[in-house]
Predict the structure.
Amino acid sequence: MIGLVATTTAGRRAAGRLTEALPDTRSYDVRDLATAFAECDALVCFLATGATVRLLAPLLQDKVSDPGVVCVDEAQRFAVALVGGHQGGANDLAQQVADVLGAQSVVTTATDAVGLPALDMLGWPFEGAVAAVSRALLDGKPVRFEADAVWPLPPLLVGEQGEHRLRVTDRIVDTDERTVVLRPPSLVLGIGTSRGVGGDEVEQLVDRALADAGLSAASVAAVATVNAKADEAGLVEACRRRGWRLATYPAAQLAEVDVPNPSDEPAKVLGTPSVAEAAALLHSGGVLLVEKTKSAMATVAVARRSPRGRLALVGLGPGARDLLTPRAQAELRRASVWVGLDQYVDQVRDLARPGTRILETGLGKEQERAHSAVREAGQGHAVALIGSGDAGVYAMASPALEVAGDDIDVVGVPGVTAALAASSLLGAPMGHDHASISLSDLHTPWPAIEARIRAVAEADLVVTFYNPRSRGRDWQLPQAVSVLLEHRPAATPVGVVTDASRSNQRVHLTSLGELDVEQVTMLAVLVVGSTQTRLVAGRMVTPRGYRWME
């Protein structure tokens, strides 16, 4: 819950706006700040920073448990992340508050200020000298990186040398005042139990098995068992206490897994000769590290899963920075490897965090970029494959997903397409049914393209032409216009938008009969109306319902 603390009329008015925009908020008077601090996950205080500091000082305990606090000035010009920037969520909350109030967020956390990912905000458990290693990274000192495997982490500015050290491992290791250990989610516990087992027994067995193998419980990603044990109270309770996700499998599926220690007893009772080992192997897809270990009423086995790389398919929109979505920006900052067309990479190069590896190529290298991105993700990296518009519309998502296997995680990031950008500039030409067709015959035979144009013309759909014309392809657009003129009047409105949303943007309204194809370039998007599209006050409009025109 977010507590909103205000003492003035302006503050209460701003708090009301936040209540409408943010989920789960509650308003408090400034005299109840201590109560709000105890009850809420985060606070927004409409007070001066000095007053807020003095009021909060006696309440502060530690950055792990304290709520994040954002301070907003009386004029709502700034939203300042005051306390708990990372672990309290104040940095993100400051941006949310600023977006609602039209203010400027102010974040002074050092790593955020210089674009470095914070070690304590990677979403993994950690141990050791976070402050010392983070300081070394901020000061540009070499930090030695040691990892048991490649994981999809953001760029961390680490190398092979340095007094400070960052280790990524699921093994129990010693730390010192210059070392941080990150615990990857690599271990899967397979657990079998007798009916009525207690949660304490399950936890004690797991801790003993992990300790004997030199493995950290902080790297446990999940627990797996047979379906028949899904409601076993002791197992469920142990998972709840430790925050472990519980997955269950049918006995028949577990019975198909080869294990080193099958047993007749579970085969008779449950229908599978193994629960612990089979479940650990099946859920992890990896290798068995600890064969089944027993207590009086439970068995446990431990498997290690292989890291899965991450491929984000990022569309940059039509070009303007304010049409690049926040989600796309977040994925760009999260990725340690960028793959993209050089001119698209140039649009967002300033968003690359220090240490980002950028693989850029020129025009005509789409397949090379797709294969490169999938290969990097397959090696365990966090990859952003960059394209314009929406990655799934005449862009890089399709060639990448044609070659991507199920061994990587894929994230699609919606983007503003060229058609949408052009439509917004022209009016509302896509207010009813519409289609998009690329006039490039480099990958699609022209007879297939012409057949689609004819089908769209006969169906009376608004059509957006991508890749309408280039120096080497100058006859396709006139041919497309000729086909359309067989089915709709020469007066049909046409919009030509070049470099939509960019500094040299051009918008031109004409008609199908008067279209000057010589003025259309590869950077243009052509929107041809249906027979119902009209010009209203200089704007293209296709009514949502034809009956409205009666």
About this structure: The longest strand covers residues 287-294.
